[in-house]
Amino acid sequence: MRKAKVLFLEASGGGGHISITTSIVQALSKLTPNLQTERVDVMPPLAHKLYKVASRQFVNAFLLLYKATDNQRGELFASRLSSMVSRKKLTHAIADNEPDLIFSDYSLAIDNVPKILEKIGKPIPFVVFVPDPFTPHRIYFSKKTNLTLVSTLPAYQIALERGISPQKLYITGHPVREEFADIPTNINTHKEKLGLDGSIFTILFGGSGHGAEKTLEILMYLGAKPSGSLFKRLKSFANLDSKTYYRLFMKTFERQYTDMPTFQAICVCGDNTELKEDLEMLEFPSYIKPYIYQRRGNMADLIHASDIVVGKAGPNILFETITASKPILATYHIKGQEEGNVDFIRTAQLGFVEENPQNTAYLIQTILKNRDILEYTKPGISYAQQVHKQAAEKIAGHIAALLNRNS
User: Fold this and answer.
1) Looking at the structure, do residues 120 and 215 belong to the same domain, yes or no?
2) Same domain, 368 and 225
3) How many domains does the chain contain in total?
4) How far, in Å, are 208, 217, 354 from residue 393 at the CA level?
5) Which of the listed ranges 10-24, 253-267, 358-372 does the model predict with the highest average pLDDT?
6) φ, ψ dihedrals at 185, nearest 5°
7) Distance, CA of 175 to CA of 331 (rounded, Å)
8) Does pTM surpass 0.85?
9) C-alpha count within 13 angstroms, C-beta hemisphere, residue 329
10) Which of 15, 163, 174, 185 could disulfide-pair with 151, CB 3.0 to 4.6 Å?
């Protein structure tokens, strides 16, 4: 007897879509062990490059594009754009895999899939999960999907406003890979297993796929001095804050803190190889113990080993941090797409939001000297954990139920 198959359409840009799919596949494998799953990256290479550049260096232009397309006219433009960049790849993915259900959390696939299914005459159920929890773009909502799944009540309301039927719309919470909920019983021992000092306050810098968290600038404001070769490199070209440029040229990064508590800095750079090279050319003061990595497959282990996560306010790193019971300090967000995330951090008291690198350094220094302040994040983190608990299992349940109805 042929096993049922689910085709997951995902996108490699940023890594968030991949992580969401992984969490759902984990849950499905436990709920329906005999189910086949196939994953296809349908993000065109050009779209990946444009997103990486826009989200890291041209954030204001990205905001203009986001707002310009988040309306009915813009939806038509986005639909035509998605047809141009992904129709052929999607058609091949569906034809090659012959799935019993199609799932997508990638925007450029959503409008195209129903059109492709109609053209080839196959009524395959199509399920969409909207990855942006608070300010999702219009392109994620299609009346032709069998199910639209969202992670929060604000996203649910936006979906209703976009014409999605309540009978085809469910709130699930944001899915997170199960390893983030598997909190070590002894954090100090866990740190030592990773080669860290178990007794030292630990900060994880990173979390985005493209290394957009301003880690380099923050560490310089914390006292890490640019080497001569790094100074020349940054002087030629770097995506730095204007005040950082001024201090760099005036050579005012020479000053070292005299009363800074010692801390470990785990720096994860994603696919930003230049950032890793820059960080390795910093001259760190004795109170900063750096650990610099490119991509890491054990992000859950690193977050568990940290006392606070300092990074971009992307939905995945945000909910991974919450699931691991850690506070977050958001230093950057993609305008338009992630504005609701920073509001959520503030209102739910999950941590801090500070996008000025100099102010971020001052805030970190303050936290290091007043660590009890992090205790105030625990109620908000605990509440958010409960709201989004077992989100992947809920999504897996919807997929299994839809497969059973169509079998």
Assistant:
1) no
2) yes
3) 2
4) 25, 39, 34
5) 358-372
6) -70, -30
7) 23
8) yes
9) 28
10) 174
CA dist., res. 274 & res. 278, Å (int): 6
Looking at the structure, tell me whether residues 119 and 185 fall in a common domain. no
How far is 28 from 129, CA to CA, in rounded Å?
A: 15
**CB of 245 closer than 8 Å to CB of 271:** no
> Which residues, 6+ apart, have CB-to-CB distance to 332 below 8 Å?
208, 212, 213, 214, 311, 312, 313, 355
Structure confidence by residue, pLDDT tens digits, 61-111: 444 455 545 455 445 555 555 555 567 888 888 989 999 999 999 887 888
**Average pLDDT of the segment spanning 146-169:** 96
User: In the chain, how long is the greatest CA-to-CA distance?
Assistant: 73
Domain coverage including residue 21: 5-175+390-405
Rounded-to-10 torsion of CA 362, 363, 365, 368: 180
pLDDT in tens, 103-136: 999 887 888 899 899 988 989 999 999 999 999 9
Neighbouring C-beta atoms of residue 80, cutoff 10 Å = 11
Question: What is the H or E stretch that residue 166 is in?
Answer: none
Statement to judge: residues 395 and 383 lie in one domain: no
Place of tokens 């990855």: 131
Displacement of CA 385 from its chain's centroid (Å): 17
Closest to 142 in 3D by CA, of 188, 176, 108:
108
Mark whether 232 and 111 lie in a shared domain.
Answer: no
Range list of β-strands (E), 61-194: 101-104, 126-129, 147-150, 169-171
Instruction: Read off the DSSP letter of residue 254.
Output: G
Q: Phi-psi category of 24—alpha, beta or left, where left has phi over 0 and alpha has psi -120 to 50?
A: alpha
Are residue 199 and residue 142 in the same domain, yes or no? no
Q: What is the mean pLDDT of the chain?
A: 86
Looking at the DSSP bridge assignments, the partners of residue 92 are none
The answer to whether residues 170 and 282 belong to one domain is: no
**Which alpha helices (H) appear in 14-58, and where do they start and end?**
16-31, 45-57
User: Of 96, 112, 116, 92, which is closest to residue 104 (Cα–Cα)?
Assistant: 112
pLDDT for 64: 47
CATH of the domain at 113: 3.40.50.2000
In this structure, the answer to whether residues 123 and 141 fall within a common structural domain is yes
Gap between the Cα atoms of 337 and 314, Å rounded: 9
| CA nearest to 314, candidates 295, 325, 328 | 328
Contact 213, 312 (CB under 8 A): yes
pLDDT of 210 reads 64
Tell me the backbone φ, ψ of residue 210, rounded to 5 degrees. -110, 10
